[in-house]
Amino acid sequence: MTTCHLERKRFYCREWAFVKLSHCLEQRGSCKTTGAVIVGGPGSGKTALCCEIVWPGSGQSARPQRCLNKRLLAYHFCQAQDVKTLSVTDFIVSIAEQLSQKLAPISEEFCERLKSDAEVVSSLQRENIIKCPDDSFRKGIIVPLAEIKPPPSQCYFVLVDSIDESHISGVKFEKKSNSGSSRTIGELLANNHHLLPSWLLLVLTARRQSKTIAKTFSGFRKISLDDLRKSQVVRDVQQYILSRLEWEESLRQHMCRGTAETLNQLHIKSNGCFLYLERVLDGVAEGCIVLREVRDIPGTLNGLYLWLCQRLLSNKHFSKVRPLLNIVLASERPLSEEQVCRCLLVAQPTLGSEEMRRRCQVLRRVLCLARDDTLRPFHHSFAEWLCDVKHCTQRFLCSPASGHAMLAMQLTLRGPNLNAEEVESLALHLSCLPSH
């Protein structure tokens, strides 16, 4: 079962989206559509919406998402910075475990089959999933679901967030599989969703720009979170700004004459992107952005990242934290500050502890510290930006390849003591190094 760093974070708006999902759920039994896909650009709030369904808030306003939560059988968050969450094998194992727990009050027979049916148990063993994930998914999950008798009296759903997410280093991080077998969670669901029973809805989220997902799941109901032609989306943007002002004294104290016009500019520039609004309003609350500067901020997420980095990091600062960022970007899982520093010391052994402490302080300006004390980009789009010279410019360009080299070097020095997982990790980082 995956977790998400947005869990329990204050949630704003989107009531209409929960109503639409509920409508899809009610219609599932009477139509051929097997799923719904929630789309939006980077930072439009897809993952936040999923978190609110999985961990709904309290109070009257959260009633729609609590109702949806009661019909949720299983969920999965695909996260680019943690390749385990992108693993087809781990996905199948996790979904099977969750279904076994959630369906216990509905079908004891289903739960018993997952524990004692020889074919089902064999299908869900890791070594067999690795050999043929599609076969395991069908025999271990879909067939037992389809054979529940009598079928549940109401429809339920499975939620998979960021189905199009992939590690910054791309396809080299995908597990190799037999020809014709699904390599990604997206492929697995695309190849098998038509076999789901009529009482089960598949709900996915993906970027609006993802043509592969749009084509693969073309029959799914589409819910767009940032289509500004829709009045409810425009209302969400306005309400987000007003709600932040209502809840946060640190924001209200920056209000003055002309604030309304400035906030209207912010509304327009955000283009429906909640992450854009969040980064600007957080900057105002923390005192690093003056509200009147909104007129100078570019009107795209990529432009905002460049503006913020130019403001927060001098050339000298960035040159010192770039190696640390390279390690964070290249790692197949989130690392703690201490782990990142240990890795850097392999390449730069003369760095003193005080200098390392200063570098980490600067690093925290552009990375977030998660609940488990690991360092992560605050959003995957920022990690992508750091690797795209067209948007970040040479000044802020990072090199995951350099990070792979440092991670591989650190593992190589421990060669005789590596366990099987670390050996696989070493091979992976070596495969990502430039071939010349």
What does this entry show, briefly?
This protein has helices spanning 15-27, 46-54, 63-69, 88-102, 108-116, 118-123, 126-131, 133-146, 185-192, 211-216, 231-247, 249-252, 259-270, 274-286, 301-312, 315-330, 337-347, 353-363, 380-386, 389-396, 400-413, 420-431, and strands at residues 35-40, 72-77, 156-161, 200-207, 221-224, 335-336, 367-369, 374-377. It has 436 residues and is α/β, with parallel strands linked by helices. It folds into 3 domains: 15-224, 3-Layer(aba) Sandwich (Rossmann fold), CATH 3.40.50.300; 231-297, no CATH class; 313-431, Arc Repressor Mutant, subunit A, CATH 1.10.10.
Task: Describe it.
It is built from 22 helices and 8 strands. It has 436 residues and is α/β, with parallel strands linked by helices. The protein folds into 3 domains: 15-224, Rossmann fold, CATH 3.40.50; 231-297, no CATH class; 313-431, Arc Repressor Mutant, subunit A, CATH 1.10.10. The strands form 2 sheets. Strands 2-3-4-1-5 form a 5-stranded parallel sheet. Helix 17 (337-347) packs across helix 21. The protein starts with 14 loop residues before the first helix and ends in a 5-residue tail after the last helix.
